[in-house]
Specification:
single chain; mainly alpha; Rhopdopsin 7-helix transmembrane proteins
């Protein structure tokens, strides 16, 4: 059970009801991202679909983790986060390497599927994998400037950069609240209905959703031969 997430454990289906219900923010954003992408006429709807799917899985895993718990819930919680972090890395690195959206999606599916299987066999692997993956994913997403010759055409270069930085800033704010609200932390109150970990859920979902929509505005980079 999530003993480090401050909220008091109670009897019933949802062991941490506030944290469990707030996890639905990922599900809501996961549903909205593909809809927003299509409404905006995104040049590449597939990334929006993939982000939407993975965000729904993250939400389901978090509800299960903070709710009934158990082996499957623990695996889905960690494995879905691994899949999300790898998706961010796949599109960032893939776009810069000149890969098509389908190539990026295929590579992500193979790597994510393999690591999710590893986490099923060795449950503790998720904790070891997700911390470094989070660092590299966030670093790649807020890279200050796309390399010359790889300007996205769906939005001005500055617009894509601002969307990514804003999304990362929202996630970072949520992460700060989460860290300060952990069990024993200065903002931890096990009985309050406003849990710091639940605020993290909402801010992380919104920030990642904003970033995911911006990804769909990037065309496949074109390599210029001299």
């Amino acid at each position: 059970m999530p003993l480090a997430d401050c909220e008091r454990l109670v009897e019933g289906f949802l062991k941490q009801p506030v944290n469990a219900v707030s996890s639905l923010a990922f599900v809501l954003v996961g549903v909205l991202v593909p809809l927003v992408v299509r409404h905006r006429g995104g040049r590449h709807p597939m990334p929006g679909d993939l982000y939407g799917l993975v965000l729904v899985l993250v939400g389901a895993g978090s509800v299960a983790f903070h709710g009934p718990g158990g082996v499957i819930a623990d695996w889905l919680h960690d494995a879905s986060i691994t899949a999300l972090l790898l998706l961010i890395l796949a599109f960032e690195l893939g776009h810069r390497a000149g890969w098509s959206t389908r190539q990026i999606a295929a590579a992500w599916a193979v790597v994510a599927g393999g690591l999710m299987l590893v986490e099923w066999v060795w449950p503790r692997a998720g904790d070891s994998l997700n911390s470094p993956l989070a660092f590299f994913a966030v670093s790649s997403a807020v890279w200050p400037q796309l390399r010359p010759g790889r300007r996205p055409t769906g939005l001005p270069k500055e617009g894509v950069h601002r969307a990514r930085v804003l999304g990362a800033a929202i996630v970072a704010l949520g992460a700060l609240v989460m860290l300060l609200s952990r069990t024993g932390g200065p903002l931890c109150d096990p009985a309050t209905v406003v849990q710091g970990h639940s605020i993290w859920h909402v801010l992380a979902a919104v920030g990642i959703g904003l970033y995911a929509v911006s990804v769909t505005e990037i065309d496949r980079p074109v390599k210029v031969s001299l």
